[in-house]
Known about the structure:
This protein is of the alpha/beta class. It contains 11 helices and 8 strands. It has an 8-stranded mixed β-sheet with strand order 3-4-2-1-5-7-8-6, with helices on both faces. The longest helix is centred in the first third of the chain and has 25 residues, at 65-89. The protein starts with a strand and ends with a strand.
Amino acid sequence: MKLVVKVGTSTLAHSTGKLNIRRVKSLCETLSDLKNEGHELVLVSSGAIGMGVGKLGLTARPTDIPTKQAAAAVGQCELMYTYDKLFSEYGHTVGQVLLTGADFTHEERLENLKNTMERLLALGALPIINENDTIATDEIKVGDNDTLSALVASSLQANLLVILSDIDGLYTADPHKDKNAVRIERVRELTPEIMALGGGEGSSLGTGGMRTKLHAAEICMAAGVDTVIASGEDPTILYKLVAGESVGTLFGGKK
């Protein structure tokens, strides 16, 4: 199975902004074990700006573009150092791939990206992807790693994209506000009603990123790639997903 796994900052870090060491270790251990089973894996990881903030001793996440980009430059080194160290303990080699929106819209660059990714996988490496926040501007920005992971999964024709989040799937209503909200196990079509569950500006689901996750599912479904939105609290759920068990919300790709 060719599997793309996306992890957000909320999965990688504590509420303090510091790295959640136990969870990141569990993630790397699980992915390493799945590689040992013979699966091809790609990890799309957020967290560079957050780690850069800590490394630079800033008191808060920056709001201006130059400081964000500086934090990303410093944090990306720290992020890859952490992944390299942990995956090396299980005998796996990682490769860093930093992308912008132009890598998907320019035909030649997209072809080069596909070739590089396929070669990394063939060589047994585990590509770790992030947006190139240090140089990305509005004109070439993908904008969020949910969308980035969907573009990667669709371009590689992966079997499955797993978006690990701080919510365990798509619900019929905001579960933080409605105790009667029910998790939707499977979505076969992204109707306007389903898309509306992503929330609007300022809603807890919208600001929590459900809207971008639904957009990611939309990209993958159109490309024939299955997508699962699931909780990143326990990365070992990836075993269940690979085994075909029902976890989170599955968006079926058009075959």
